[in-house]
Amino acid sequence: MKEETGIFRNIDKPLLFIYLALVVIGWINIYAAVYNEQHSSIFDMSQAYGKQVIWIITAFALGMMVMLTDVKFFSAFAYVFYGVTIVLLIAVLLLGTVVAGSKSWFQIGSFRLQPAEFAKFATTLALSRYLSALDFDARKLKSRIIPLVIMFIPALLILLQNDTGSAIVYAALALVLYRQGMSGSILLIGIATAIISIASLMFEKYWVIGGLLVILLVMLLFIRRNRKNILTLIGIFLVATAFTFTVNFAFNNILELHQKTRINVLLGKQIDLKGAGYNVNQSKIAIGSGGFTGKGFLKGTQTKFNFVPEQSTDFIFCTVGEEWGFLGTLVVISLFIYLCVRIVMLAERQRSDFSRIYGYGVASILFFHFFVNVGMTIGLMPVVGIPLPFFSYGGSSLWAFTILVFIFIKQDANRLQLV
């Protein structure tokens, strides 16, 4: 067999295959989601699936450009990429176009570009560059704060655009910090914070405080009762109690009405099948109606009669569930899980700290997108407008995810050159 040369030397075939499979399956489901018998041509530019063909071709071109680029270019210019995207995020706040309530887009004729999507890979590059520096020490306060600042700046700018979904993606990069030596106690604090937040919204705050007090008393029974441990537990209890009041204040005074309604619907405190809960309810009906094997390609009734809004974008997973059933969703979910696991496995074999950290960042972002998007279509996560990678219609997200993945593919293919 002829030895492979050029840009395809040492490329990881399984990772490339999964990427291609997800893009093709995603396009098929976009076609099914918006199919119109009067516009059945895949090259019909008046339809989303026709435009998506263009995005796919240009995404492949971007992937090829990444593969042709010197692998050291991405680490050398990591901060430049980050700086450029920060400028774009500020510019879109001033000059951007409002779409679906978010001022996140540059409008150039009929073409729209969303800088928030590209900020994800740029932030991952900058974070990888900092964490791989020779003087990085996870035990130092400076080394803990600066990575958080790198993640916080784009997240804040995106939040100001009223794009909450894209902003919370940056929380996923905290897993990278944990891999690089961040204390497990910080991760535990994050989980505890989430639990207290949910409990504070579901129950009266006095019940939550009572529960925290019971936990405090139980822990006092099982720990070594010395002055330091007792004071530490009391301090944690007081902070948790204060946080309970903070959650309720933020919920009642900071969040918009539609955001509060969505959270209440998700937590079961409010039923609004014709309003905030309509999308999720129709989504669950569509997925459930698919049964074990689905209704068949182009035969989804929920899809054909447009019962599920945004079905080619945020709710594209409904089409998979309705037309391909449990088996189809199992295949798609398995592909996404294998994609993330494969990237982590490849990240662990990297000789370069920069490449390993970047690989973990890629896996974290992809998994977060996949988990939240699928979760919101089945009612387990709030509807925050976050795309399903390689599936949801749109050029910005497909381009950004393609660049994100292909930079890592390039790094892995050239791992012997990097130290």
Low-confidence region ranges: none
Please indicate the count of domains.
2
Rg over C-alpha atoms, rounded to the nearest angstrom: 23 Å
Lateral strand order in the biggest sheet: 1-2-3
Shape: globular
Structural class: mainly alpha
Major pleated sheet = 3 strands, antiparallel
What is the typical, i.e. mean, pLDDT?
84
Number of strands: 3
Q: What letter string, H or E per element, gives the SSE order? A: HHHHEEEHHHHHHHHHHHHH
Q: How many H/I helical runs?
A: 17
Q: Please give the share of residues in helix.
A: 55-70%
Distance between the termini: 31 Å
Strand content: under 5%
Please provide a written account of the structure.
The chain folds into two domains: 6-181 and 285-417, no CATH class; 187-254, no CATH class. Helix 10 (205-222) runs antiparallel to helix 11 and helix 13 packs across helix 15 (316-348). The protein contains 17 helices and three strands. It is 67% helix and 3% strand. It has 419 residues and is mostly helical. It has a three-stranded antiparallel β-sheet with strand order 1-2-3, covered by helices on one side. The longest helix has 33 residues, at 316-348.
